[in-house]
Amino acid sequence: MWFEERSWSNLRMSELVEEWRDLWSFKVDFMIAAISYVFATTNFLNFPKLTLENGGLAFVVAYGAALLVLVLPTIVLELAVGQLTGRAPVQGFYNLSPVFKGIGISQILFTLLVLATMTRFLGWLMLFLYYLFWTIQADRPGLPWLNCKYFPEFLSAPCRDAGSMANFTLAAHTKLSTVRSESSFMQFMSALEKPSASIDDFGDFQYNLLIVHVLVWIIVFSGICFGVRWLGKVVPLLFMAAFSMFLALLIRALYYGWLNGNI
Fold first, then answer.
1. 3-state secondary structure at position 36
2. Residues that constitute the known binding site for Na(+)
3. Fewer CB within 10 Å: C terminus or N terminus of the chain?
């Protein structure tokens, strides 16, 4: 068939190499890129939250079963078609059968949706790192959205000190106090994103978010514009850096949990 001649040895000897899509330099580059795609940053961030909110170990078992039965076969199918045809999703599935063209179109639309979501997470991460290094350089204690009294710049934003007390009235009892249960992440969102009160309120234009999103898209474009050979060199470094940071956070959380008797 037409794809039986698409082997690396044949392509290197052929004068038509430029007509084909770029190939990975080594098989291990492709494997690392695939693993990085599956174990993305959002998966690491969402899995603990989903586990705690949906029953703990029972959810982990159901989640693992769904991965094995539904997710893994789908990923293997996509990778197999891509490696077999060496073409874009629409053309690749169309070459298998014209009726499968819609699958390729849906894959592109889904990828755009995932990219839009991922850039938002990465934008938050860049903002967090910026303010983290800013506080270190300015020699101020804590983070801006958790220690508002040390950051006059954030007093106009809905910023509250971490662990601050809130007073409320209940029947005949007055001045009852409670510690706010709002997480540091929600305080980060409120202070930096300044969400509007309702859907009909457009709110203010957030230039800081625009800047970090533009930077994220520039980084993404720089990583893929030179083809998969360049991508195969960039992805392992980024994946190992992200994995090392998550491992450090896990060790720190387990260590302090052990000290407090929570393990």
1. helix
2. 43
3. N
